[in-house]
Amino acid sequence: MKIKQNLHIHSQHSCDSACATLADIQKEMLSCGMSEFGISDHLHTHYNLCDIQGARNDFLCAERPASFHFGIEVSSVSKWECDQIAAGNYERKGDDPVYGLRFVDGPANSPAQIGITAEEIKELGIEYVIAGVHWPLYSKADREHAWEDYFNQMLAMVKNPLVTILAHPWDSVEHAAGGWFQSRDVKDIDYGAIAEVPQEYNDKLMNALLEYDKAAEINLGVLNSLRLPEVCRKKYWTMLAQWREAGVKFTFGTDQHAAHNNPAVLAASELLLDFYGFEDENIKYLFN
């Protein structure tokens, strides 16, 4: 099938390594035949709302086609973190406030939420919100705790009325299960945690996506990542195919952080989509 949508692209305004300009994004997406595409820069906490404001200013100043849209990618963070950052109760250590405070002294079981309000979404003209789990919230570094933690966070994102799309389901759970977030050592990445996610969790997520009418993201960056063993990539594709059969709708995103789009990722993804039986009717187009 032909990929005609890319809603997950990071511009140079994103608070990480992303460096693409809006002009290059527009030119390259149009050349790929995208009927709808958009930027979705990171908003982890309210601390980096200024990055989204900068992206919005750039977007408004650009000459752009109707197919170019303005979204964001929010992270699941804890209420405790949001409250601490809003009150200024943190020490500025590098970029720590941007990525939250959970590895300092956060309490366990603080509810997961996102760092932006409905009023701010409206004020900034944000057209869609992709919500992803990017780290554990205080869970222990083992598979059982990581699975439960990521499931609970994803479920909270699906239930959140401000969220449009669930980003890259289960991505980075391998880092949480092995303890990489604490050690930052590659030997502490447990890739088996992806391949062995209990079916019960996937079924519950599938049912929640259907109940709350949310789309799940087919993240082309994750699904084509050679850092993942093949068994993990197959696990992802099989899970998405099962969700498709139950009626879940999907969106596409390359999760681009580089300066330029990689057409090879799209070409490889189209072959995989055909292999796993995806068709255009399985995709949720937000603007067409």
Q: What is the architecture at the second tier of CATH?
A: Alpha-Beta Barrel
Broad structural category = alpha/beta
In the predicted model, the low-confidence regions spanning at least 5 consecutive residues are none
What does the oligomeric state look like here?
single chain
Biggest sheet overview: 7 strands, parallel
> Strands of the largest sheet, in order across it?
1-2-3-6-7-8-9
CATH H level, superfamily name: Metal-dependent hydrolases
Strand content: 5-15%
How would you explain this protein's 3D organization?
The structure is a single chain. The strands form two sheets. A seven-stranded parallel beta sheet has the order 1-2-3-6-7-8-9. The protein has helices at residues 22-31, 49-61, 79-87, 102-105, 118-123, 143-159, 173-178, 180-183, 192-195, 199-211, 220-223, 230-246, 263-275, and strands spanning 5-9, 36-43, 68-75, 77-78, 112-113, 128-132, 165-166, 215-219, 250-253. It contains 13 helices and nine strands. With 288 residues, it is an alpha/beta fold. Helix 6 (143-159) links the parallel strand 6 (128-132) and strand 7. Helix content is 42%, strand content 14%. The protein has a single domain, classed as Alpha-Beta Barrel (TIM Barrel), CATH 3.20.20. The radius of gyration is 18 Å and the shape is globular.
